[in-house]
Automatic annotation (TrEMBL):
Coiled-coil positions: none
Keyword DNA-binding among record annotations: no
Keyword match Hydrolase: yes
A single GO BP: oligosaccharide catabolic process
Species this chain originates from: Lentilactobacillus parakefiri
Alphabetized InterPro entries for the sequence: GH, GH13_cat_dom, Glyco_hydro_b, O16G_dom_2
Name the UniProt record assigns to this protein: Glucohydrolase
Pfam families assigned: Alpha-amylase (PF00128)
SMART domains the record matches: Aamy
GO molecular function terms noted in the UniProt entry: alpha-amylase activity
Family assignment from sequence similarity: Belongs to the glycosyl hydrolase 13 family.
Length: 547
């Protein structure tokens, strides 16, 4: 029986699986994934060996931003099912010893939420102060603050002769956390879902709750809205709600440096159990295209491993619903797809922290090469396309950038079979044509597949205490190919050796590593550890003892 109260740190010895409901499995053949579809696939999720799922939003929403614009936090978007489906899904996951984490979007709501529908009517409306308003300045927007989706962060409301603030789309007005009534309203939502069996929350855009109260022009846009001094009060109050309900929390906190993160995830006094940081995935460099530098990757991930050691807990991830596919972004999704997907898996999965797998990552699913803007569904990608063309960029070069970085890369339907297997209807977004070869059915039949490799990693990860608590130590190779590190406890440990490049490399295991035992590799050939010849995208895991 699942009990978060009796096992409050369950999430440390766990592997998470992120589900994007719209693209996971369509049970009623309308082209849209749904909750009954997720229930149907619980045996598959259980077969991965994961202990919890995180579901992207499926609450009531006009779907301007694919459900991240919530119009009712205690109701379900009909395209996904009903509240009864939700309760049934939670129950069935629990019966399979899998905990359930929901996405909670509380930096902003949809403009269709009844709070905002009321708020915009008049300055005297009880809900007016739930949002952030400013009078025009010289007949124009109040300041130079911009939206992360482009343009001004202010939209005019004629009924009150005011502008309201939105960090994202104009249909996503930001909540005013300076108003204590906002916290009270959100607290009720947290309590309600906890009563209905939810085990935790991933907190969307949580580092943006506090806005710069001077409302003056800024040189650095971050100063207006990210990790602003004073946010601690809001996070501390929320933390009380989560802890009272024994909920696991992971905050989305891009731009929060590791020095600050120590305060956020301190095991004794922190606000959250974990945070997602994006230093290693260049999250803020939205549509830049370039090759990943392995030396920078080593430096960044090691900074977080060392920075939180003994203080807080890391999240380990390469993909999510906002990022391109890892094998396309970090790896080689051509003829080295299987090799690079498994090498990347070993590289990140065995560090200290809680690993997350994004749906399809365990198959080595790749970016999709849409060649027409009409194939895209993501509002940010469409906005970027129009802005680039207006600046004089060509369609071809703009589409190339989208093919590399669009959020829709991660949102194409899950590839179940060679015919697709997601739906018998035209999906809401086109499937990646490579589903004919890359799919669950093929991967399950191949003992050397990416899927089989992830299952082995998960089993290993959850069975050895060294991989839970052992210290991380980088072995810096001072090159742009290898990522080598150890996880060690009481002079016993694991040595992880990966070549994250398209060219061969050499590596020599030093003599202080004794009784070496090869545990897992993505290559067939055995190696002499003292003179390793590493093929491109090869990965080796050794068990060892030290002198």
């Amino acid at each position: 029986m699942i009990s978060n109260q009796q096992d409050p740190t369950w999430w440390q010895n766990a592997v998470g699986y992120q589900i994007y409901p719209k693209s996971f499995y369509d049970s009623n053949n309308d082209g849209i994934g749904d909750l009954p579809g997720i229930i149907e696939k619980i045996p598959y999720i259980k077969s991965l060996g994961v202990n919890f799922v995180w579901l992207s939003p499926f609450f009531a929403s006009p779907n301007v931003d694919n459900g991240y614009d919530v119009s009712d936090y205690e109701d379900i978007d009909p395209q996904y099912g009903t509240l009864d489906d939700t309760f049934k899904m939670i129950k069935q996951f629990h019966q399979n010893d899998i905990r359930v984490v929901f996405d909670l979007v509380i930096n902003y709501t949809s403009d269709q939420h009844h709070w905002f529908q009321e708020a915009q009517k008049s300055v005297d409306n009880p809900y007016h102060d739930f949002y952030i308003w400013r009078k025009p300045v010289a007949g124009k927007v109040p300041n130079n603050w911009v939206s992360l989706f482009g343009g001004s962060a202010w939209t005019y409301n004629a009924a009150t002769d005011e502008y309201y603030y939105h960090l994202f789309a104009k249909q996503q007005p930001d909540l005013n956390w300076e108003n204590p009534k906002v916290h009270q309203a959100v607290k009720q939502i947290i309590d309600w879902w906890a009563e209905h069996g939810v085990d935790g929350f991933r907190l969307d855009a949580i580092s943006h709750l506090k806005k710069n109260q001077s409302f003056a022009d800024v040189q650095d846009q971050e100063a207006a809205m990210n990790n602003v001094f004073g946010i601690e009060k809001f996070l501390d109050e929320l933390s009380t709600d989560f802890k009272r309900n024994h909920l696991m929390t992971v905050g989305e906190a891009g731009g929060v440096p590791v020095t600050r993160a120590r305060e956020w995830v301190n095991t004794k006094t922190g606000y959250f159990d974990m945070i997602f940081q994006f230093d290693h995935v260049s999250f803020w460099e939205k549509f830049t295209v370039g090759k990943i530098d392995v030396a920078m990757l080593r430096k960044t991930l090691t900074n977080w491993q060392n920075g939180l050691e003994g203080i807080g807990w890391n999240t380990l991830f390469l993909e999510n619903h906002d990022l391109p596919r890892a094998v396309s972004y970090f790896g080689n999704d051509g003829d080295m797809r299987q090799q690079s997907a498994t090498a990347l898996a070993m590289m990140y999965f065995l560090m200290k922290g809680t690993p997350f797998i994004y749906q399809g990552q365990e198959l080595g699913m790749t970016n999709v090469s849409f060649d027409n803007i009409d194939q895209y569904r993501d509002l940010d990608s469409k906005r970027f396309y129009q802005e680039e063309l207006a600046k004089g960029a060509t369609k071809a070069e703009t589409l190339f950038k989208l093919q590399k970085k669009s959020r829709d890369n991660a949102r194409t339907p899950m590839q179940w079979t060679s015919t697709g297997g997601f739906s018998n209807h035209q999906p809401w977004i086109e499937m990646n044509p490579n589903h004919q070869t890359i799919n669950v059915k093929n991967e399950q039949a191949d003992s050397n597949s990416v899927l089989s490799f992830y299952k082995r990693l998960t089993t290993l990860r959850l069975s050895d205490p060294v991989l839970l608590a052992g210290k991380y130590q980088l072995i810096d190779t001072h090159d742009h190919q290898l990522y080598v590190y150890t996880r060690e406890s009481a002079r016993k440990g694991y040595l992880i050796i990966t070549n994250l490049s398209d060219t061969p490399a050499a590596y020599q295991v030093t003599s202080d590593f004794q009784n070496l035992e090869l545990v897992l590799t993505n290559r067939s050939a055995e190696q002499n550890p003292t003179a390793m010849k590493l093929q491109p995208w090869s990965a080796y895991l050794y068990k060892y003892e030290r002198k």
